[in-house]
Amino acid sequence: xxxxxxxxxxxxxxxxxxxxxxxxxxxxxxxxxxxxxxxxxxxxxxxxxxxxxxxxxxxxxxxxxxxxxxxxxxxxxxxxxxxxxxxxxxxxxxxxxxxxxxxxxxxxxxxxxxxxxxxxxxxxxxxxxxxxxxxxxxxxxxxxxxxxxxxxxxxxxxxxxxxxxxxxxxxxxxxxxxxxxxxxxxxxxxxxxxxxxxxxxxxxxxxxxxxxxxxxxxxxxxxxxxxxxxxxxxxxxxxxxxxxxxxxxx
Length: 250
Description:
Blueprint: E1 11-15, H1 20-31, E2 35-40, H2 43-53, E3 57-61, H3 67-80, E4 83-88, H4 104-132, E5 136-141, H5 154-174, E6 179-186, E7 189-190, H6 195-199, H7 203-208, E8 216-217, H8 222-229, E9 240-243
Parallel strand pairs: 1-2, 1-4, 2-3, 4-5, 5-6, 6-9, 7-8
C-alpha cells in the first residue's frame, strides 16, 4: 500500500502553492517523494514557501491570468523533467457580496484566473504528456460552491461549476491517452483566503453550517490530493471528491 501512494521520482506542479491548500498539498507531495514546482504571483511568499518545503521544491513566479506566463512556466517545469502531476489550485474570490452589487471588475478576474488559467495550465501539461507518451494526473481544486449555492458567492460558485465541467470533459477526452483529470471540492477551509470572512459578522453562521462542527484545515485536503495523484487512483477519472465535513448534506 505504501508503494501505491508513493510519488517517488515524479515532478508535480502546484499552482497557487505558496500558502493555504496549495502549500499543504505541495508539502504532502514532497513527503511522498515528489519534486514539486510551486507557482504564485507574490515572489516573497513564494521564496518563503520554497524554503519551508526544502530542496525538493522549486518556486516559480506565475500569474494564472497571463497565458504567456502559464506557457513559459509549464515549459520551464518540463525542462526539469516531465510533469506527471498538475494541481490547479490557484484561484481568487476577492469579494463576498450580493449578486446585484457584483461589478464587471469583480467578475472578470474570477473567471480569468479560476477557469481560463485552469484550462490552459491543463492543456499545456497534457499536450506535453501526449507527445512524450506518458500518463499523468491533473487535479483541480474546486469547491462545494460549484454544486451547492452559497449566498454572496454566486460568481465564485459559477467559476467552480465551470471547473468541474472542465474536469469531466477533459477526463473524457484524455482517458484513452492515460491522462486522468479529477476535482477536489472542499467546503470551508481555514486559510488566508477565508480569514477575513470568518472574522466578519458571518463567521459564526458559516461555522455553524458544518455538521462535523469545525472548519477544515488545509491538511484535511491533502489525503485526497495524494490519492488522486498516485497509482492508488489509477482507474479514477472525471470524479469530483467532496471534502466538506458534511456541509453539502444540509
